[in-house]
Amino acid sequence: MPYDPSAFPPFAVTVDLVVLTVRGHALCALVVRRGESPYRGRWALPGGFVRIDEDLEAAAARELAEETGLHAQGSDEPHGGVHLEQLATYGDPRRDPRMRVVSVAYLVLAPDLPTPTAGGDAHSVRWAPVDTLVAAGDEHGGEGKRPDPLAFDHGRILADGVERARSKIEYSSLATAFCPPEFTVGELRRVYEVVWGVALDPRNFHRKVTGTPGFLVPTGGTTTRQGGRPAQLFRAGGATLLNPPMLRPEI
Amino acid sequence: MPYDPSAFPPFAVTVDLVVLTVRGHALCALVVRRGESPYRGRWALPGGFVRIDEDLEAAAARELAEETGLHAQGSDEPHGGVHLEQLATYGDPRRDPRMRVVSVAYLVLAPDLPTPTAGGDAHSVRWAPVDTLVAAGDEHGGEGKRPDPLAFDHGRILADGVERARSKIEYSSLATAFCPPEFTVGELRRVYEVVWGVALDPRNFHRKVTGTPGFLVPTGGTTTRQGGRPAQLFRAGGATLLNPPMLRPEI
DNA sequence: CCAATAGTGTCTTTGAGACAATATACA
DNA sequence: TGTATATTGTCTCAAAGACACTATTGG
């Protein structure tokens, strides 16, 4: 394969973002309303073109900042920002009717933040519960009904991101990425309950997470923001892999 | 973003293949010797350009067939071929000195086959033990020494593929992808031992895999190809996720 | 007082890990 | 016979799940 610019077909490369957070009792995704054709007026995942001299992850972090004001934790910002990881790449030749576009999707996990939108080129931004965007049991285009399907193949991308988040909080400490810097065991438990859509025993959960080495570090403070008896505050510990893992209840 | 072909920067998109198999007592990867500059004469992962009307996975399956003669199991071939799944996408602006190339890597798991090379445009193809290509503990550019570094960032891609295989056989039935259609419990155990680089207790392993529902289906036949008492032959069961998972010994 | 949440303790069951013992081939 | 591998069984310990009970706030 000698170097000949005309020898390779030209592709456009974009990044799309699956930005998830836990709001109230729902797992929510960030969606933007499209102002242009195709899919004008439909909701879509935030994203945009990768620049010619830009790394893929840098493009994802830039789009995230432009459309939400969130800053990803990267090499320059090891702990301050939200979690960002590559999800998968989507390149069906007909996924964009205009041209051949390969999109590298990234998954972002963020704590519940006061205002989702932070300006940019998106006319409208909102947090939408994921089960209003992808019907349950419809992960890969099944039988469920989608009330308001996302543009392009973004429904599929979102479903893949949600599935990644659901499985990854099992064996990693990633659930803390949905929490503020200091949080209680009850708040962490609510993250698991909302993401998995199950109820967990508060007593067993407490024993489990406080007994897993490196998962939680007590800060010494307490809070009563959940009501009831004051709860200890924790920060995320250094551990990234949980051993033993959290077990998702079956069926 | 209106449609304007000059508005987006042109990228080349390729697929690279991490093809793994278990040969003897080593986990091996398929590598091809480069006949062209850059990295002429160096070993590299098989791969090539994605065609303008070709799906990414189709491009990966095509390159796999062209360079190895292996057929992936896809929509048209649900059970006959080898396992193929998307691994990750690599798009550092300087990963190819000639031009901006985004490469979508795919992971292929194959049983030990008689002849690795099946013709094509690769001058030289071989199975190489992965620990001769990526030094242990050197998964992401650490302190180990690489005897013969792969071209481009293929060492990194291979390390990511090996790590994916190592973690995925824990909680899925994917280890059977390294086995022939009919295999014994001892052969399956050797897959785990080679991929993880550990020794497993044959008795506990036998009890575990035969007790996991849907993992193994006895065919009724037996074989003595491993020596010793004849062993039952099994096929892979329908289960894809193992519950409970296989546990990788720690430390 | 009651309601709500936090946190501890206790019991049962499941399963992993260690390892003895038996089964059945080949040399 | 000995050696190699397969397969079953048994014991112990760790951890998950169910759930009683206590602790500490606010109304």
Describe this structure in words.
Two copies of one chain form a homodimer. Chain A is an alpha+beta fold. Chain A folds into two domains: 5-168, Nucleoside Triphosphate Pyrophosphohydrolase (Alpha-Beta Complex); 172-236, Winged helix-like DNA-binding domain superfamily/Winged helix DNA-binding domain (Arc Repressor Mutant, subunit A). Helix content of chain A is 23%, strand content 24%. Chain A has helices spanning 56-68, 130-133, 154-171, 185-196, 202-211, and strands at 12-23, 26-33, 43-44, 47-49, 83-90, 101-109, 125-129, 216-223, 231-236. In chain A, strands 1, 2, 3, 4, 5, 6 and 7 form a seven-stranded mixed β-sheet that branches. A two-stranded antiparallel sheet of chain A has the order 8-9. In chain A, a hairpin with a 2-residue loop joins strand 1 (12-23) and strand 2. The longest helix of chain A is centred in the middle third of the chain and has 18 residues, at 154-171. Chain A binds chain B through residues 1-3, 5, 8-13, 36, 48-56, 86, 88-93, 98-100, 102, 104, 243, 250, and chain B through 1-3, 5, 8-13, 36, 48-56, 86, 88-93, 98-100, 102, 104, 243, 250. The structure holds a DNA duplex (27 and 27 nucleotides). Chains A, B: Belongs to the Nudix hydrolase family. Chains A, B: Keywords: Hydrolase. Chains A, B: GO terms for molecular function: hydrolase activity.
